[in-house]
Write a structure and sequence with these properties.
Structural class: alpha+beta
Order of helices and strands: EEEEEEEEEEHHHHHHHHHHE
Strand order of the largest sheet: 1-2-9-4-7-10
Helix content: 40-55%
Distance between the termini: 25 Å
Number of helices: 10
Length: 267
């Protein structure tokens, strides 16, 4: 499987973490079934070869050719259904809603056909990248497409973006009361703004961010005891730590250690 990463326009760097792609190098080169953890971001996929399968809540379905993975509160599994070729746009938590008109409230835990976001423009961009022969040309088409959508839908929500950045910087450890004090929002204002932009509450976004920090600690500090990890991740006791971890991952920390093909975003 060949991995590609694209250096995109500076105009997009405030909103997009990375644009990357994956291609099969032969018919036998398939993407293995993999576990995708909640990570507090939206990712938009452009398939120009066979779309992947998704397994969620014991159900299997084929992905649309162009779709968004919404902010998730629980894990999903994915795997190829044949020859692989796709480009993925991974947004920062404060980035995705600037690229479409419809508020993303109600999109939580869903695979969203991009037709709902961009109407026929979604079908047109897929048609174009299927007709293009090189990955570099496909990247360029998608970059131009995203720049146009940003011009159409960019929103003036600097304060909301700053709250999302604050939660990420503090790894989900601040209380909602502390966030409101620091940013000047009331609790109701903050919740309303979050639901209409990122699609979830500030509390849930903080929990997802905190979970991601736990995953980083598990990955980087395997020599630590569970007691040390519990303390480092800001939990008062192991029982609460294990329960919170299992809510989002479906596994205990010990079971997580033993899994292969587990992926999650960087904080």
């Amino acid at each position: 499987m060949k991995y590609h990463e694209f250096q995109f326009s500076k105009s997009l760097t405030d909103y997009i973490q990375t644009i990357w792609g994956m291609e099969s190098e032969s018919d036998e080169d398939i993407y293995p079934r993999s576990l995708i953890m909640p990570d507090g971001i939206v990712e938009i996929i452009f398939h120009y070869e066979k779309p992947f399968y998704t397994w969620q809540d014991d159900k299997q379905f084929i992905q649309p050719e162009n779709f968004a993975i919404s902010m998730m509160r629980k894990f999903i599994e994915i795997g190829s259904s044949g020859n692989t070729g796709f480009i993925s746009v991974r947004f920062y938590p404060w980035g995705a809603y600037h690229f479409f008109s419809e508020p993303i409230q109600g999109f939580l835990d869903q695979t969203i056909d991009a037709y709902r976001l961009w109407d026929n423009d979604s079908k047109m961009i897929i048609s174009k990248i299927k007709k293009t022969e090189t990955i570099e040309q496909r990247f360029k088409l998608i970059e131009d497409f995203l720049l146009e959508k940003l011009r159409q839908f960019q929103k003036d929500e600097v304060r909301v973006d700053s709250v999302l950045k604050l939660i990420r910087q503090t790894k989900g450890t601040l209380s909602i009361e502390s966030i409101c004090t620091e940013t000047g929002f009331s609790k109701k204002q903050l919740e309303r703004k979050f639901l209409s932009t990122v699609g979830t509450t500030p509390k849930m976004f903080s929990r997802i961010t905190r979970f991601l920090n736990i995953c980083q600690n598990l990955k980087e500090q395997r020599s630590q005891t569970l007691t040390q990890l519990t303390h480092d991740c800001g939990f008062y006791d192991q029982a609460h730590f294990i329960k919170e971890f299992k809510v989002f991952s479906g596994f205990t920390p010990k079971e997580f250690y033993e899994r292969e093909n587990v992926f999650f975003s960087e904080i």
